[in-house]
Amino acid sequence: MTSSSALAVLLFAASAGSLQRFEAVEPHMGTLVRIQLYARGEQQAKAAFRAGFDRIAALDDALSDYKPASELNRLPNPVSVDLFRVLETSQQLAVETDGSFDVTIGALTRLWRQARREGRIPDPSAIADARSHTGFRKLHLDPATRTVTLDDPALRLDLGAIAKGYAADQALAAIAAAGCPRALVAMSGDLAIGDPPPGRAGWKVDAGGEVRTLANSAVSTSGDAEQHVDAGGRRYSHILDPVSGLGLTRSITVTVIARRGIDADSLATAASVLGAVRGRALIERHGAQAVLR
Fold it and tell me: Deepest in the core among 70, 107, 124, 133, taking most CB within 10 A?
């Protein structure tokens, strides 16, 4: 969504010393993005909002698997710093989890998206065919040249489990560079949190049903509350197990509090696939906090 076509809502609350609180909302990356920040005035706030939203829009053009012309779907070589950074982080987590986190499952996610629209589960033969075109070991990255190669030309990438967290991080950084480090970026279940509001220890946020006061951190929640398909008496989550090719059938909601959104987002998905015990161990190994329900 470009800035010219986006609809922004600009609000401000009472002043806090020399700073005022502002809030704006725009649609990006398939959700509404809400930014709250403190600025010296409306002009500075508008500039900071524009910097944050434009950064997200640019990342959507790079990282989206929905857009046919996105960088992710074209994979030019060399790829951008942003795309390479996200793929590199993804591959590191794929190796650590032995494929429980895997961004090469694009063929499967496309199959399940259609199934959710039709209210059914995919045919087992279609799942098997899609699974044959997945596997993180078929994706190769060269940091020296920032190039990406695929062993299987039918392999498709899906960064839905990490892109929003990274975009929230980058938007927060762009807002801080515009002179407003006291900010919060909310992209559905992904939050990137900057410096605290004036006179406060942090921002009050919902972290897995618990109200936390947080600053300079990120929160991501992963679960099946909103996206799933019910069939044959079972609920299949939009979160897929890369090994079985099926949507998760156990009910689990994972919230991760980490330093960066790129980590919180990806760890929440990986922990969902691994299950409560192994998932919590993974999160804590990364120095993050977990709330599992």
Answer: 107
Residue type, 201: A
| pLDDT tens sequence across 32-67 | 999 999 999 999 999 999 999 999 999 999 999 999
Helix, strand, or coil (residue 35): strand
Q: Are 257 and 214 in contact (CB under 8 A)?
A: yes
With beta carbons less than 8 A apart as the criterion, state whether 71 and 80 touch: yes
Residue 173 neighbours by CB under 8 Å, 6+ apart = 55
DSSP code for 216:
S
Residue 160 phi/psi, 5-degree rounding, is -60, -20
Nearest to 270 by CA among 146, 154, 97: 97
- Phi–psi pair at 285, nearest 5 degrees: -65, -25
What global pTM score does this model have?
A: 0.93
Q: Which domains does the chain have, with CATH numbers?
A: 9-64+163-220 (3.10.520.10), 78-159+222-292 (3.10.520.10)
pLDDT in tens, 2-18: 343 444 556 554 455 68
Q: Which two tokens stand for residue 74?
A: 């074209």
